[in-house]
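Recap quiz, item 2
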Amino acid sequence: ELQPCLSNMAARPLVIKTSTQFSTKVRLLVKLPEVDYQLRVKITFDETLPPGQGNRLFNISSNNTKVMDVESSSGCLSAEFKRLELRERKATYEPRGNQSSLPVTEELHSICYRGQLRIQGLNIALETTSRPLVVISHVCQLPSAWASVMWCNMLTDAPENLSFFSRALSASWSQVSEVLSWQFSTLVGRGLNREQLSMLGDKLLGPQASNNDCQVTWSMFCKENLAGKSFSFWTWLDSILDLIKKHLRDIWVDGCIMGFVTKERAQALLKEGQVGTFLLRFSESHLGRITFSWLEQGDEGNATVHSVEPYTKHSLSVMSFADILREYRVITDGVLTGNPLKFLYPHVPFDDAFGKYGSPQRDEEVIGYVECNFISVSMFSTSRPPRSPFPELCELSPGTLDIINQTISPSADGQISLDHLEWE
Amino acid sequence: ELQPCLSNMAARPLVIKTSTQFSTKVRLLVKLPEVDYQLRVKITFDETLPPGQGNRLFNISSNNTKVMDVESSSGCLSAEFKRLELRERKATYEPRGNQSSLPVTEELHSICYRGQLRIQGLNIALETTSRPLVVISHVCQLPSAWASVMWCNMLTDAPENLSFFSRALSASWSQVSEVLSWQFSTLVGRGLNREQLSMLGDKLLGPQASNNDCQVTWSMFCKENLAGKSFSFWTWLDSILDLIKKHLRDIWVDGCIMGFVTKERAQALLKEGQVGTFLLRFSESHLGRITFSWLEQGDEGNATVHSVEPYTKHSLSVMSFADILREYRVITDGVLTGNPLKFLYPHVPFDDAFGKYGSPQRDEEVIGYVECNFISVSMFSTSRPPRSPFPELCELSPGTLDIINQTISPSADGQISLDHLEWE
DNA sequence: ACAGTTTCCCGTAAATGC
DNA sequence: TGCATTTACGGGAAACTG
């Protein structure tokens, strides 16, 4: 009865959330003579799953049988199953948590499609299986689930290997980087360039290893925390994909965001340019944040690079990043100075890069009110910094602090002292 | 079998959302001799509902039977039904939308509690009914539903009157104002004072009528739009309750928010005070917003009152209102001037009122970054206002505008011109 | 106690019904 | 078509569960 696969399917729902609707489609790739028959297809979930592995079990919602129709676009037979839903089958007998059990986002599942075709006296069984699926119960599991799907599809063509992650294969950096760039292309409309990928490779493997196209293990990619951080490489990168998707799509597509560049390299690049040159970078120490760094004139000819505290998704929901950049101001000792952001690295005048992202006109007149906006400001102070821009002084006694303040205040300006701080 | 009610219930779930869990409790108010019996109570939904009214019908989730237990606190018998859920029974036969059908938030329902008690040879049927309930399918219906519950409980003690809203009674303003103040007490921790209630009464009925304790109809309270607005009195008031609950609780409880005061009255009050006096008012033209108004020195001795564009829930989610007030700045012709908010009306120095609401310490040091905050600023300009604070000039030809500007700019400062604008 | 996982439910958006 | 009402589901938080 199990014939070689005569049909195939458009793999779409690679990650499925329980209690959430999804749909799937099978297509018959063989043209049949136009005779009078019905081809009824039935889907089942996890038929081929090896039992007793401690995997979760799911019931698929009822509408699991369909008659294939002629698809108008391609002319071939297809069946689309809509409004399907998975619900976990709480098995009291076979508890989860056996020895081997993987995290849920590495547990692979599949949909099986079966049809019976009776033609010219022959009885042909048609069957195919979806690509591996990951089933999650909450969107917060989606990044990990997506990583599994990516990794698995990158390294194997065998849809039936549902225990891939019990011993996940490694991938070469060139494979990984291609997949990453492709993710950016498809999800946010612009891939990653050589410099951006090189920074990512260094981050994942270190500079030597990524040049030599070393192997990236699944664990390095998705499970181990980055050095000194509390999140993995993919968790970090995915948080940035999400940030771009929600708040930075336009300026990302236009290439205004260098983004993947270390603090050291950003500093070096900016120091080559003229005062007022700036660039946009994703935070490496926090998830889903972006900052800008710019070159500011110090008072003895030695220009220094500053960065603002990175903006979160929530900040950007109040004000677009382009508006934040346009309206950014520094207040030094209570005096408002101009916007220090003049040239997007290397030499693009601010308005050439960001002029087109005008803040949308307010939808209604607010007659009678003083108009009021949030703007993003940094307070610099030459004497008594409001929230201790001199963290190393905080532990000193008040007396000592007074002496230091007195020493600093006559000659220094606020920006010089910032020179001594590290920045990310 | 229908005996007089021997039991009563703690009415809690006055508004129930479909597919969302709720619980309810019945208590037996009569002490029974301690004999060996079980008192089993069953709940049903909408038993007493008059049929054929076009009302929606609901099924209550299964756990509808319970044995009463002795409650440790009171010593009386009670049964708590937990994890109940309503789901609409889609009746294909009796469609909704009959002649009489009310909006869903005015459709009253009830839970019926029934017990059978066999004691000393007697067979006693116990029965009681909940207070009227409103069933909604989405939280956006909650304000209207809550209004119905309030109104109905204010005007009738008869729980069985489920068609109350087919001809809703009116209430006197004194009844309504008591209920409103009580809403503020219980929901946000501080009721409404005489001045606040008087403003609300004027808004609802006009000044004469509210002084004479006129009648407020259900329609005026909840259905008709306020004059010139696109929302009803209750919709507006509820949006403010919600704003306070989520973002202003502390300063509301401390009485820092005058809140309910018309623009004219605020203006008059502030003009009595010294320059820098300010007060906090809820927007009357938009839902769930708050603004501040302050007295600013004009340049010819005639102080004027300004208000900023009201803040929304979303604005306040970025920065607390106390912080917005503390950091508010005016920029006049590119020059930063100090915070104009000095004294909370009538005479409270800013820090005495708001000093205690320090912005919470940032949870982590952001070493190496220039600290950066949003602050709320207004740009005043003496010559060319950026986003037309002079709306009445917009229609003039550019040439005329130039002439006017030239006339104004030498002597005027930005604040004088604002004097001519209405403000809310 | 705790981490991985699921459930609960508000609030935005879209779909549906009348 | 427009308005009233419900459904869908992301995301924060709480509950669950070994």
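The mean pLDDT of chain B is 80.
Residues 18-19, 88, 103-104, 136-138, 140-141 of chain B lie near DNA strand D (CB under 10 Å from a C1').
End of item.
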